[in-house]
C-alpha cells in the first residue's frame, strides 16, 4: 500500500515559462483537476484547472500567485493521500522524493479501486455508527460485541471525535443485527446511524459511501 507502487508517469510537470494554453490542453486530454509546476528542477506546486481559464494567453508565471503547495512522498502509505484529495479538492496528487524531484502522480480513482477490494468495502452488510464516551473508547470491545453475536466484523474507523464522545463507523455482516443492537445498548453505546442492506445492487453505493466518509475525516 505504498505510494511508489501506484505511481503513473505520463502526466508532465510544467515549468513557469510554459504557456497557459499548453497546460490547459494537457488538462483537457487527461481530465484532471490540477497541473503540476516545477522550478529549478524541483517540484514547486500545483495549479487548479479553473485558474487556467482566467487568462487568455501568457505563461504559467502569470498565475504563480495561485499555485498551491501539496504533494506526497513516494514512501508514504496510500491512506496518507486521502486527506490531500479532500483538502485540495483534487482528483490527482503529485508524487515526489525526499529531494523534491517530481516522480509522477496518483489519482483518486487509483486509490478507490485499490481500497474497494478490501472486505470493508467489497462485502455487503450493515453499516453502524455507534457513540461512546471518549474515556471508554475501545475498538477491541466494539469488534468483540459484533463477533460475540456470531457476526463478521469487516472493519471500522473513527468518524467523529471530541473530548467527550467518539463516533465509530463499522461495517459488519448481516447476521443477528437485532441482537447486536441490543448488546451495544447494554454496553452503553448509542447507535447514531445504521444502514442495513443485503442487496448486491447496493454494493457500489455502499462502498462509495464508505470511501467518502474516509475522505471527510
Automatic annotation (TrEMBL):
The scientific name of the source species is Chryseobacterium artocarpi
- Which InterPro entries does the protein's record reference? CBS_dom, CBS_dom_sf
Domain (CBS) ranges: 72-114
What Gene3D superfamilies does UniProt report for this protein, alphabetically? CBS-domain
The entry's protein name is: Acetoin utilization protein
Amino acid at each position: 500500500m505504498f505510494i511508489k507502487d501506484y505511481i503513473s508517469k505520463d502526466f508532465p510537470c510544467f515549468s513557469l515559462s510554459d504557456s497557459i494554453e499548453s497546460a490547459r490542453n494537457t488538462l483537457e486530454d487527461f481530465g484532471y483537476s490540477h497541473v503540476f509546476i516545477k522550478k529549478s528542477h524541483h517540484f514547486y506546486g500545483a495549479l487548479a484547472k479553473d485558474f487556467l481559464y482566467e487568462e487568455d494567453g501568457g505563461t504559467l508565471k502569470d498565475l504563480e500567485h495561485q499555485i498551491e503547495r501539496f504533494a506526497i512522498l513516494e514512501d508514504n502509505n496510500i491512506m496518507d493521500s486521502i486527506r490531500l484529495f479532500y483538502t485540495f479538492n483534487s482528483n490527482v496528487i503529485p508524487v515526489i522524493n525526499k529531494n523534491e524531484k517530481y516522480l509522477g502522480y496518483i489519482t483518486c480513482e487509483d486509490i478507490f479501486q485499490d481500497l474497494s477490494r478490501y472486505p470493508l468495502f467489497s462485502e455487503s452488510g450493515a453499516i453502524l455508527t455507534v457513540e461512546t464516551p471518549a474515556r471508554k473508547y475501545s475498538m477491541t470491545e466494539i469488534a468483540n460485541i459484533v463477533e460475540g453475536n456470531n457476526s463478521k466484523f469487516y472493519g471500522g474507523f473513527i468518524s467523529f471525535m471530541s473530548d467527550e464522545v467518539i463516533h465509530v463507523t463499522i461495517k459488519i455482516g448481516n447476521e443477528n443485527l437485532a441482537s447486536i443492537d441490543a448488546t451495544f445498548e447494554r454496553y452503553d453505546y448509542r447507535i447514531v446511524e445504521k444502514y442495513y442492506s443485503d442487496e448486491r445492487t447496493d454494493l457500489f453505493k455502499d462502498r462509495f459511501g464508505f470511501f467518502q466518509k474516509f475522505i471527510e475525516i
